[in-house]
Amino acid sequence: MFNDTQTPQLTLFVVSDSIGETAQRMIHATLTQFPEVSQIEIKKFPFIKSESELINVLKRAKERGAVVVTTLVNPEFNIVGQKYAQNEQIPYVDYMSDLIGIIQQLTNCSPILESGALRKLDENYFKRIEAMEYSVKYDDGKHFTDIGEADALIVGVSRTSKTPLSMYLANKGYKVANIPLVPEVDIPDEVFKYKKLKVFGLTASPNYILNIRNERVKVLGLHGPTNYNSIERIRQELVYAEEIFEKLNATVINTEYKSIEESAFYIEKFL
């Protein structure tokens, strides 16, 4: 964007009491409207912590003929900065104050005036993405290698809402693994090694599970009774599930006629 050997067409000073990423995004969005302005110098002044620091930056902006763009959440800094810039005829753009004031007036809510709030929001976003990637990887007993990293392990027989519940919790930032319980398939020994792992066992009545499985069979285009939707088979699976719940010291949740939100709310109490 700018070569040191050339004179810039435009110099911008980005001033913030955090890292200044909000102002940078706004600047880049604005500059896309001026494709002919190619020689642009952008200097960043993050983590402004005092009025004297701010004034020093404004003095440099005056010397360089720079436009000052700020995202200062401290209202006192903004008052000082705007007053100095006005007196010294420095172009000064404050991206925060006016909108904060309007929102405060319309909602009667007070702003937290916390610098770096966007970065924290981004951190929460990436935490959720990481949790969802983990939960997809550890869905339906596909992997066990790093299962100890899970915030929660959900176990249960087929059609007790393991996967929907796992994904719902993952979207809230929790790493969740889930394992289907089938009498013929043993749970790997490594699962039992993690004594601090919070385990939740999902269950429901045989008839409730049977009704859901019958619908599932129809969706799959199958006809007639199968082992999957046999009431006797379901009872066997539930007996086996109870044994596993006990071995894993699981907190048991009956998901019958419960929404995903209800079950998740209960699990979150333990996380």
From TrEMBL:
EC number: 2.7.11.32, 2.7.4.27
GO molecular function: ADP binding; ATP binding; phosphotransferase activity, phosphate group as acceptor; protein serine/threonine kinase activity
Key words, A-Z: Kinase, Nucleotide-binding, Serine/threonine-protein kinase, Transferase
Catalytic reaction list: N(tele)-phospho-L-histidyl/O-phospho-L-threonyl-[pyruvate, phosphate dikinase] + phosphate + H(+) = N(tele)-phospho-L-histidyl/L-threonyl-[pyruvate, phosphate dikinase] + diphosphate; N(tele)-phospho-L-histidyl/L-threonyl-[pyruvate, phosphate dikinase] + ADP = N(tele)-phospho-L-histidyl/O-phospho-L-threonyl-[pyruvate, phosphate dikinase] + AMP + H(+)
Enzyme class, UniProt record, top EC level: transferase
PANTHER family with a match to the protein in the record: PYRUVATE, PHOSPHATE DIKINASE REGULATORY PROTEIN 1, CHLOROPLASTIC (PTHR31756)
Protein name: Putative pyruvate, phosphate dikinase regulatory protein
Organism name: Staphylococcus equorum
